[in-house]
Design a protein that fits this description.
This protein is of the alpha+beta class. Helix content is 22%, strand content 36%. The protein has 2 helices and 5 strands, in the order E-H-E-H-E-E-E. The chain has helices spanning 11-20, 27-39, and strands spanning 2-8, 22-24, 43-49, 54-61, 82-94. It has a 5-stranded mixed β-sheet. Strand 3 (43-49) and strand 4 (54-61) form a beta hairpin.
């Protein structure tokens, strides 16, 4: 299994993904996700909207990233190719930054 944190620019895009079972990412992420999809039994995507300090849920990648692109994303953003996802859980889970303490050993 492989896990990836997906940062969304807009909460509406996450809602669209939940309703339609599709996602798109930046072109620079496509190769990494496609390789994980081909080489792993399961790819889980954990979603967080930028600036929210929350996780909105997680989904399983159901297809490799294709060439077709949608115009369904908020603000008319154009991303890379679409791919299917199956949402396994939708929720709001708060997370807080954890202060790092250095032990002086490195």
């Amino acid at each position: 299994r492989r896990y990836f944190t997906i940062k969304s620019f807009d909460r509406k895009d996450v809602a669209t993904s939940v309703m339609r079972g599709v996602w798109a990412t930046t072109a620079r992420n496509e190769q990494k996700l496609n390789e994980a999809f081909q080489d792993s039994e399961e790819v889980i995507l954990i979603f967080s909207v930028n600036g929210s300090r929350h996780f909105q849920g997680y989904a399983r990648m159901e297809s490799a990233i294709g060439r077709s692109q949608s115009d369904i994303w908020a603000g008319g953003q154009q991303w890379g190719g679409d791919f299917r996802v199956k949402w396994l859980r939708v929720y709001v889970c708060f997370y807080a930054p954890v202060p790092l303490r250095f032990c002086g050993c490195c």
